[in-house]
Amino acid sequence: MLAVAARRLGVEMRFFSPDPQAPAGTRAELIVAEYENEAALAHFSEGLDFATYEFESIPITAVESIAQRATVRPPVRALETAQDRAKEKACFEALGIPTARSAPADSLREARAALAMVGLPAVLKTRRLGYDGKGQAVIRQSADLERAWVTVAGAPSLIEAFVTFTRELSLIAVRSSAGDVAFYPLVENHHSEGILRFSLAPAPNVSPQLQSQAEDYGEKVLDHLDYVGVLAIEFFETANGLVANEMAPRVHNSGHWTIEGADTSQFENHLRAVTGMPLGSTDAHGVSGMVNVIGQEPDVARLGELPGVHVHMYGKQPAPRRKLGHITVTAESMQGVLQAIGQVRGVLARK
User: Fold this and answer.
1) Residue 319: its pLDDT value, please?
2) Closest alpha carbon to 132 in 294, 314, 273, 318
3) The pLDDT of residue 131 is above 70
4) Structural domain containing residue 51
5) Contact 314, 293 (CB under 8 A)
6) One domain for residues 60 and 112
7) pLDDT at residue 130 above 80?
8) Is residue 41 part of a domain?
9) Is the entire prediction scored with pTM above 0.85?
10) Residue 184: what pLDDT?
11) 241 within a domain of the structure (yes/no)
């Protein structure tokens, strides 16, 4: 999707991935090598003006290697912060952004002490590599701790207080190299088994005050990290306002609706920011919904018959819990979007 946006902007792209079947290879030059391959990284970096990333589980050493030869945006510091939940929480706390109370747990003994401090219920989360619900376990009573510790395989972790929330929201923000900032409307996200299933954009029943609060928190993070590019922050909406859950220093799944649903997609705005172009408008077109295609190939022909439906398949091999694509639905009202999402999910449920 970045490659498609780049072509429209006249930006020449080159990709680096350990996966020889990376979909980007169909759109631009693809260098296939492990992230630790210094010779391949040097070859990849030749002639680059700018480098960016769309996946945060990349070894910092690889990004630092590229940064010696090209301008990396977002900066390495942002990636380091987002890769480690402890650093991420410290960032939120330093900026006065509410986040769940937490304590480190690098051993089962520390985990017991952390649980006593944080209280029940709680969530045990690995500090690194947790994604789509991986590396997490809910602790509802003290006896659950040992089972949870086995679930995360004893990896360095945090224990977080369980947040009582009404819904999950995300903010897609973008900051240019000149320091200009723009925000898309808040998005309402619906998860199951730790995986985002569908999103509604703009999120219904968002007051101007709630949008403003999210943007204030987003701008604080962007400025603090001297950020350039698209940043996503996931929030819990609570009775006392927004509580930051985590951030992603990249284009984000909950922003995929912007391809059809906004004046400028998050992918185009990311590239505009990274390459020093002015940002595009983030205004939404009516109402949109985004449904993830997970695990198995859908009936694309049947989906194509539905009104207001736009199918994006990524060219990935089917596998359990794997995101194979997404479907955007557009309508003039939230009721129309919800009806279309119901139809789309009905087609996806058929085998």
Assistant:
1) 92
2) 294
3) no
4) 2-72
5) no
6) no
7) no
8) yes
9) yes
10) 98
11) yes
